Amino acid sequence: MQTKKRFVQILFMAIFGLGLNHSASAQDFYWGPRVGMNVSSMTKTTYSKARIRGSFGLMVGYKINDLIGLQAEALYSLQGSKVDNNEKDIYSYNYVKIPVLAKVYLIGGLNLEAGVAFNWLVKAQQKWNSSSYDTNGNVIETTTHTRSLIDDCKSFDLTIPVGINYQFRRWIDLGVRYDISTIRVSENKKDHAKSSVLSVNLGLRF
Fold it and tell me: pTM of the prediction?
């Protein structure tokens, strides 16, 4: 775990440092913070319901010309799903994500983006409730339980992010993106569920 944390710190520093080094010297380079709202769920499973969670991190990009650009990000992404049952199961899967994207500019700042994202799982947890009832069927007490799922899950996921984005003339960057997962979440070969994340993202460019 210490090796993973050190690697993640280096990636964040590298992306942040690249933006600092180039944004001042080249107009076509930009960098800045990025936050997002995730609508996350699981595919290939019957009972999964979406959860609204968040993401945050840094981005750095370079607009090669009026048509093509590149962008890399370092994000902490909160994902997961829930199950609408009596126990109200909630699953949390938190990833450090490194998307590398190509951008195609259409009109002005409007652009399509697609690429690949390298994702490392740093937290996996199940949370559920159990209730005690009286003789009339009324709830006396509800207890919340949690358990770690980290040892039961794949530590790495490779996703294909695709989206549409608009870079305003100054400062603001706004977009919608969908991450297509290529690796199942569980180590259990019989469980084929994969992450599904639709996100709305807001960035500041410097």
Answer: 0.84
- 174: phi then psi, degrees, rounded to nearest 5: -135, 135
**Residue 104 carries which side chain, given as an amino acid letter?**
V
Is the distance from CB of 173 to CB of 158 less than 8 angstroms?
A: no
Residue 197 has pLDDT above 60, yes or no: yes
Closest CA to 191 of 69, 23, 48, 40: 48
Q: ∠ CA 74-77-82 to the nearest 5 degrees?
A: 165
| Total number of domains in the chain | 1
CATH number of the domain enclosing 191? 2.40.160.20
Helix (H) / strand (E) containing 202? strand 194-204
Give the separation between CA 84 and CA 104, rounded to whole angstroms.
Answer: 40
Which amino acid appears at position 139 of this protein? Answer: V
Give per-residue pLDDT as tens, 165-188: 999 988 999 999 999 999 999 999
Instruction: Determine the structural domain holding residue 101 and report its residue range.
Output: 2-204
* Alpha carbon distance 83, 184 (integer Å): 18
